[in-house]
From TrEMBL:
<dbReference type="Pfam" id="PF03928">
    <property type="entry name" value="HbpS-like"/>
</dbReference>
<dbReference type="InterPro" id="IPR010371">
    <property type="entry name" value="YBR137W-like"/>
</dbReference>
<comment type="similarity">
    <text>Belongs to the UPF0303 family.</text>
</comment>
<protein>
    <recommendedName>
        <fullName>UPF0303 protein FHS32_000157</fullName>
    </recommendedName>
</protein>
<dbReference type="InterPro" id="IPR038084">
    <property type="entry name" value="PduO/GlcC-like_sf"/>
</dbReference>
<dbReference type="InterPro" id="IPR005624">
    <property type="entry name" value="PduO/GlcC-like"/>
</dbReference>
Length: 165
């Protein structure tokens, strides 16, 4: 197996990313839920010594923010750009980028949106409430984009798994 084969195998496809969104849905999402999810992300990032910033927004309001050692103001700018993609498209920032790549283009080339305002890079995931839709976003910045995406997905899986048991 070549290096490019391994990297393609490890990179989730559009179908897998869409399945994550269908699976990771809340029954409700309160201020307390934002605090608990954000705190879980901080705990996971600290365990990995990940130099990330973490942000949770709901309906235009920032409910949680943390900047861990090694993160910088640039991470906050990336958070805002990735979150705007989720708010505009209603899908994970990594999925939006993957959809463009699957069409043989890039988000930057084909969206015609200002790259200083929007970034279809991994790390922002929609907060979706059943029977309501996308109401916000949870975002991580500081790692390579696929790792940012995976950290958010893993935290959502843990968080939602604890609430259904």
């Amino acid at each position: 197996m070549t290096t490019s084969d391994r990297s393609a195998e490890l990179t989730p496809g559009v179908e897998e990313l869409e399945a994550q969104e269908r699976r990771l849905v809340f029954r409700r999402f309160t201020h307390d839920d934002a605090w608990a999810l954000g705190s879980l992300l901080v705990e996971m990032a600290r365990e990995r010594q990940a130099p990330v910033a973490i942000d949770i927004h709901r309906a235009g309001q920032q409910l949680f923010h943390a900047a861990l050692p090694g993160s910088s103001p640039d991470n906050d700018a990336w958070i805002a750009r990735k979150r705007r993609v989720v708010e505009r498209y209603g899908s994970a920032s990594y999925l939006v980028g993957a959809r463009h790549r699957a069409k043989g283009t890039t988000f930057e080339e084909s969206s015609r949106l200002d790259p200083d305002t929007y970034a279809a890079h991994g790390g922002s995931f929609p907060v979706t409430v059943a029977d309501v839709g996308v109401i916000g976003a949870v975002t991580v910045s500081g790692l390579p984009q696929l790792e940012d995406h995976r950290l958010v997905v893993e935290a959502l899986e843990r968080f939602l798994g604890e609430r259904t048991e």
